[in-house]
Amino acid sequence: MVNGRSSAVSRRQFLAAAGVAAAALALGGCSRGSERPAAGDGPAPGTTPPDGGVADAITAVLPYEGGSCNPVGASSALFIAAGWHVYEGLYELNLHTYRPELGLAADIPMQISELEYEVTLRENPRFSDGSVLTVNDVCGAFHQNMESDTYGALLSFIRSVTAKDDRTLLFTLRSPMGSLLRERLALVRIFPAHLAPEELETAPIGSGPWRYETIDLVEGGRIAFTPNPYYAGTFPATCGRMEWSVILDDEKRTAALTDKRALCIEAAPEVLADQITAAGATIEYVPGFSAPFLMFNCRKEPFNDVRVRQALLYALDVDSLIARITDGHARACTCLLPDYFRGYHRASTVYSYDREKARALLTEAAAEELTLTLRCNDNWASELAAALTEDWAEVGITATVVPYDTAELFADLSTPPEAGDVLDFDVVLSPGDPSCFGNDPDLLINWWYGDNVWTRARSCWADSPQFATLSQLVQDARVSTDEAEQQNLWNQCFDLIAAEVPLYPLFHRETATAYYDSLLDNYDPISATGLLFLGTTPMKEATTL
What we know:
There is one protein chain. This protein starts with 10 loop residues before the first helix and ends in a 7-residue tail after the last strand. The protein is 29% helix and 19% strand. By secondary structure, the protein is α+β, with helices and mostly antiparallel strands. Strands 8-9-10-1-11-20-12 form a seven-stranded mixed beta sheet, with helices on both faces. It has a five-stranded mixed beta sheet with strand order 16-15-17-13-18. A four-stranded antiparallel beta sheet has the order 4-5-7-6, covered by helices on one side.
């Protein structure tokens, strides 16, 4: 046992060990998602919980509040995770292996020409209200997401999505996508085309195994789900309900677990690990992308000077921060990607702790007595922010921390400023984890450094010539069919990002999930932000059987 974790081989470990064979199957279109039961007119098989040891509900606690349940351009950690259970995409990204599997699609895309692909829907898919899911619903979902601020840049390779017949979609691309096509199509979750924007904001429906019953976004609130009786996919609901509570406070979230009001909690606090394991629960730390990042106002002096941005990073004792804030459950960044992700390349600039270099850079930039305001999340990032200011003070930087709740942190940083205007902030510290959308370099680079809200309305780095250079490198890598050439182009991207640092992670934190292994059958935590219960069955206590 390690931190309460059994040494038995987990589902994720098994899948990783079988990676070569599974990859070969995936290339041939033979994935777990291809073994779907046929859809019928009534409830999907398996949505009625079996008798015996199955509990009534999956209960969990997440540490996020706010956000929107609208699936268009979804970026809320809470509702991205909820969406994995409520919606389906044409393809589903397996968040244990990061390989694309079949969702609503009956097969892998069929290439018609260099820039044209056809995708056929599986037979008779239905939404949770019983209505038939059509190719028009798919087209509508893609069109709305292609126009969204968050997903638009990630879907910019698509020129058009049209219905060829009542089951076939034609995707016309602007440029080749190579092996990443299915992974990027998996971004879009499908909902009825007739739903008005206000319905998407309050009571959206999908074709996934669960459907929303109650949505309460505030601290202490909850999201309640019930089974979708028309679901005919691979992972039907295994019990009568699923309830997610929203508790931001670490101690209260832990108490919900140890009192068994919840079977699983996300973001298990390291300082309460002994309390959690003493209650008989497991804590599993899964290496992933999850990272606190610094984002600079690249239009505002002196942060428009790359030497100042670099100095603020060299001044940080990241190894000490990792020990203090995460109890060692993280790795310092040597690249935008962690060193265990595909496509990793040690960047030409690595921000090892170097006070003298930080002071020299500040002197070169005539910013020796720098004063700044650091806005940050009012979650665990606020503790990290206090530690950053201590390190910065050692090189003469005075920083004032201003915490914001998650909903407000970027509220005034979502509209690109007019030419010549300067946004009213200095530096932002926030946790971020785009790996909930995928872990390939193209996606992770484009999330924070693409032509989108991050570069135009937040860091304001899109004004720079380096942004144009990066954009071309990313495009060249995307269309390359030569793996070595593609990796070389990505390496150049990582080097440029690390040198310019308009936004940059400090460390990649392991995702800590606490749960009762004996009460959640077939459950394995994921490395990305969010909880995933597809295929998981809640079990009754052994003494009650």
